[in-house]
Design goal:
- The structure is a single chain.
- The chain is an alpha/beta fold.
- 31% of the residues lie in helices and 23% in strands.
- The protein has a single domain, classed as DNA polymerase III subunit chi (Rossmann fold), CATH 3.40.50.10110.
- The chain has a seven-stranded parallel sheet with strand order 3-4-2-5-6-1-7, sandwiched between helices.
- β5, α3 and β6 form a beta-alpha-beta unit.
- It is globular and about 35 Å long.
Length: 151
């Protein structure tokens, strides 16, 4: 399976709101997805945002801090570290994750932070690596408040 990697341009201050809109879209499409953050605190913050960012939608989700036990029933799982859970076909990276991890999913979303030169460079390197792996690549240019394209 070749991964489709979607590069979404955003600004630092808008990243989490943009992430929530992508989560909402994938959920509405019936997809099961993981959101990878870089800490338990970030996962908890995102958990709170998903409860409150949209009055018109409800996204069943929960934070999972370690594998094992009962598989999650929720279609959206927030992780403080990259970990593969079977049954999830989409990953959204709120933090840096390696290409090997992204390659385990049919669809991966990576945010290109347009106002951070170091993170833009990291995104360029990821694009090149994904291209070298033969993945399908999509680039979504920054546009404040625009509707998301379908996956």
């Amino acid at each position: 399976m070749a991964t489709k990697l979607i590069f979404v341009e955003t600004r630092s201050a808008e990243k989490r709101a943009t992430l929530c809109r992508w989560v909402e879209q994938f959920h509405e499409e019936g997809k099961h997805l993981l959101v990878v953050t870089d800490s338990t605190l970030a996962a908890q913050h995102l958990d709170q945002m998903l409860w409150s960012f949209s009055q018109s939608s409800f996204i069943p989700h929960r934070v999972v801090t370690r594998p094992g036990g009962q598989p999650p029933n929720e279609p959206v799982i927030i992780l403080p570290d990259p970990m593969f859970l079977p049954g999830f076909d989409v990953v959204i990276a709120d933090a840096h994750v390696g290409i090997e991890f992204l390659g385990q999913f049919a669809i991966a979303v990576h945010f290109v932070i347009t106002d951070d030169p170091d993170q833009r460079q990291e995104s360029r390197l990821l694009w090149q690596a994904a291209r070298d792996h033969g993945w399908s690549l999509q680039h979504i240019q920054y546009s404040s408040g625009s509707k998301l394209p379908s996956s």
